[in-house]
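Researcher: Let's do a round of design. I'm pasting the structure tokens now; please hold your answer until I've finished.
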């Protein structure tokens, strides 16, 4: 049987990996550069992105030379690790594509069809943002958004707000069902999340 061809126009999409956290639950270590199955988490994520996205960016605040080995980097314009939306806002200042696919740096096995499913629901509902839902909870940092939102995001950040979920609630936001791939959203955000046979 011939595989169904993707209808997502990946050349209109920038992939942005959010790696700007302070690593407080990792004893200050940079999560995206921790080794898992013999290579950094950031490398696992890049390997699972569609090969023909227009651009891959990494939003980071430290170890920039290391991250530049994998993709173009962009740094937050706001100080003191103010969260993923600050990283997104900084990236949107440099992105020229119509849409941005965002992923966190600490989930090394995102669905390979993540972009296709998000794009399908975003288009179907003519929404601003579409995020993944694993059947139990919203995975808000796995999302596809229209880049015109950067003006709205600027105002939200100026108001002092930082919650991703609360920002989404102000917009035309929908979710895509990934209940058949719940394990793909495995999150490694503290050292105890590594099993004994995994490298850290």
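Researcher: That's everything. Go ahead.
Model: Designed sequence:
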């Amino acid at each position: 049987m011939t595989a169904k061809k993707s209808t997502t126009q990946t050349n209109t999409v920038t992939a942005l990996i959010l790696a700007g956290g302070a690593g407080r639950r990792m004893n200050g270590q940079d999560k995206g550069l921790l080794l898992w199955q013999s290579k950094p988490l950031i490398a696992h994520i890049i390997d699972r992105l569609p090969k023909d996205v227009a651009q891959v960016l990494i939003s980071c605040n430290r170890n920039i030379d290391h991250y530049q080995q994998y993709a173009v980097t962009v740094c937050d314009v706001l100080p003191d690790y103010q969260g993923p939306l600050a990283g997104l806002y900084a990236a949107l200042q440099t992105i020229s594509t119509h849409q941005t696919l965002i992923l966190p740096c600490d989930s090394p096995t995102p669905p390979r069809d993540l972009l296709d499913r998000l794009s399908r629901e975003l288009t179907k509902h003519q929404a601003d943002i579409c995020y993944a839902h694993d059947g139990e909870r919203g995975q808000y940092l796995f999302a596809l958004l229209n880049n015109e939102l950067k003006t709205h995001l600027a105002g939200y950040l100026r108001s002092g707000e930082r919650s991703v979920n609360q920002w989404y609630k102000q917009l035309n936001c929908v979710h895509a069902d990934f209940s058949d791939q719940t394990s793909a959203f495995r999150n490694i955000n503290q050292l105890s999340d590594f099993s004994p046979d995994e490298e850290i």
